[in-house]
Specification:
single chain; alpha/beta; seven-stranded mixed β-sheet; 47% helix; elongated
């Protein structure tokens, strides 16, 4: 268990005071570790006071030359295994100890030591600067460290009230934990806000493309190979997106790894605002020999509130109030459940694939925040064993099971589903549309949406109703087909990323946003030609 920095100093201080206090019970209480939910920012200093305590307390006790040689060898080994920021953490711990000493009555009554400690604090602060590791420190830092150690030793000799030290450190610990709580809440809010905000360049791009589209004559505004759009023998993809650049990366990365690009057909559906821009992008940047179709949601006149319960719900005053007037509604405090993207019909089209593509037998659904790294044509030949949905399961972690997404306190849920059932991922799903039609899956979806009109069965989004709709109709794919987490987890296994057919930036940290995880961005950016005129004009770059 890691400890908070102030907690570690409490431990070191009690070791110093132990001969005076002789109270091991109090010491154990004070040195209890901080809560496990402290952020890595505070955790990163977890061992510095251990080195400090050794340097302050260690006294030579043996004179044998053999033992001296062993100690020298051990010290050399310790130095080799020291973390890269050991001295930085030591300096930060010194600053905290010095500030604690300055607050004690015994030190305040000694003007000489007070002035000396204040001077040392200034010197160490200057030497420390913004250094994150020892190599960032100036050469004088080690001299300042030694000088501070000497001043702290003087303070240690003067102060005789260990209870006051402990009280001060406890106050610092509690104050830091409260600041951490506030900062985490603020960071979460700002991350959610950033994720919902369209960058200036991505706002400019569709405007620029739309202007260009209307300079074309009617013959230039059409795509080729229209006869392939309903050929069930080909490989068909469904991409529902209002992000031109993201959709382009999905198509480009898929075609780049396709063994026979001419057999791949991409059906892109977007909203009215981005329809012309999406068409212009793929007219100007056709994906090689692959076929493209761009449609608007307005073309699906059959998809209305009379047919779809979810459309009726999304247009209701209570739902709009939930998203946009959270202070007036009894809404969830978690901002991720109030993302207006859930109001977009694009987010719910995945439940109407057989109606959108009536002539097709199988289709591969792709989210617009994925990158394809291998040929995907093998998915069409998979035997789904009579299931409708082929997806990668995500129950490697406990929080990806059904009880994470559904309200099992409601009898409708608890009687029909297993709380420990394994969840699966949207983002890359192969759907057998023939089985879908035969088993009337869309009607299952409609029935559960009507039952959830008051949002008591699940919150919002498409995964919870997906888990319900395809319950016992999902075939688990090998995990290498679809690796998730690049939009929130900085520790995704690199081998899994390299071996994945599809990588998914699910989460708020999308690769086209500044808050995207830097080490994952290039997997996405390499499929964007930043020298294209439209991207240069809109100042879109990596």
């Amino acid at each position: 268990m890691r400890e908070h920095k102030s907690a570690r100093l409490l431990s070191a201080t009690n070791e110093e005071c132990q001969p005076q206090l002789h109270n091991p019970i109090a010491i154990r209480q004070v040195t209890d570790p901080a809560p496990a939910n402290l952020t890595p920012i505070l955790d990163s200093h977890s061992n510095a006071s251990h080195h400090l305590a050794i340097k302050l307390e260690q006294q030579p006790t043996q004179s044998s030359s053999k033992i001296d040689q062993k100690e020298h060898s051990d010290n050399k080994s310790d130095r080799q295994t020291e973390p890269a920021d050991a001295q930085v953490r030591h300096l930060k711990d010194q600053l905290i100890r010095a500030k604690v000493y300055l607050s004690l009555p015994a030190i305040k009554n000694n003007p000489h030591v007070t002035r000396e400690l204040r001077l040392r604090i200034k010197e160490v602060s200057r030497a420390l600067g913004d250094a994150a590791k020892d190599t960032d420190l100036p050469k004088i830092a080690f001299d300042k460290l030694k000088a501070m150690d000497q001043s702290l030793e003087k303070g240690k000799q003067i102060q005789d009230d260990c209870a006051a030290v402990v009280k001060k450190l406890r106050a610092m610990l509690h104050s830091t934990e409260e600041q951490l709580r506030v900062h985490k809440k603020q960071a979460m809010y700002l991350t959610q806000l950033t994720a919902k905000t369209l960058p200036k360049g991505l706002h400019c791009l569709p405007l620029r493309l739309t202007t260009e589209y209307y300079t074309l004559n009617s013959s230039q505004q059409n795509f080729l190979n229209l006869e392939k759009l309903e050929d069930p023998q080909l490989y068909h993809y469904a991409i529902f997106s209002d992000n031109v650049l993201a959709a382009a990366v999905v198509v480009n990365s898929t075609v780049s790894h396709a063994k026979h690009p001419s057999n791949h057909v991409f059906h892109i559906v977007t909203d009215r605002l981005n329809y012309v821009a999406m068409r212009m992008w793929f007219l100007g940047n056709p994906p090689g020999k692959a076929t493209i179709q761009v449609q608007s949601t307005e073309e699906f006149t059959w998809l209305n509130s009379s047919y779809s319960p979810v459309l009726k719900l999304l247009g209701s005053p209570s739902m709009i109030d939930y998203y946009f007037r959270a202070h007036r509604a009894n809404s969830d405090s978690n901002l991720k459940f109030r993302n207006p993207k859930y109001l977009s019909i694009l987010n719910h089209l995945r439940f109407y694939l057989p109606e959108i593509f009536p002539k097709l037998n199988k289709i591969l659904f792709l989210d617009d925040d994925i990158v394809v790294q291998k040929d995907l044509s093998g998915l069409w030949s998979l035997d789904l064993k009579g299931n409708v949905n082929g997806a990668v399961e995500t129950c490697g972690e406990s929080f990806h099971r059904f009880d994470r997404y559904l309200n099992f306190s409601n009898p409708l849920i608890s009687k029909n589903f297993d709380p420990h059932a394994c969840g699966w991922a949207y983002g890359m799903n192969i759907f057998d549309l023939e089985e879908w039609r035969r088993q009337n899956i869309t009607e299952v979806y409609h029935r559960w949406q009507k039952l959830n009109h008051d949002r008591q069965l699940w919150k919002l989004g498409t995964l919870p109703p997906g888990l319900i709709t395809f319950w016992k109709h999902t075939y688990p794919l090998d995990r290498s087909w679809h690796v998730l987490g690049l939009g929130y987890n900085p520790n995704v296994n690199q081998r899994e990323i390299e071996g994945a057919a599809v990588i998914h930036y699910n989460g708020n940290l999308k690769p086209w946003l500044e808050i995207g995880i830097p080490k994952y961005k290039n997997h996405w950016a390499k499929y964007v030609d930043y020298d294209l005129m439209y991207l240069r004009d809109c100042n879109i770059n990596l």
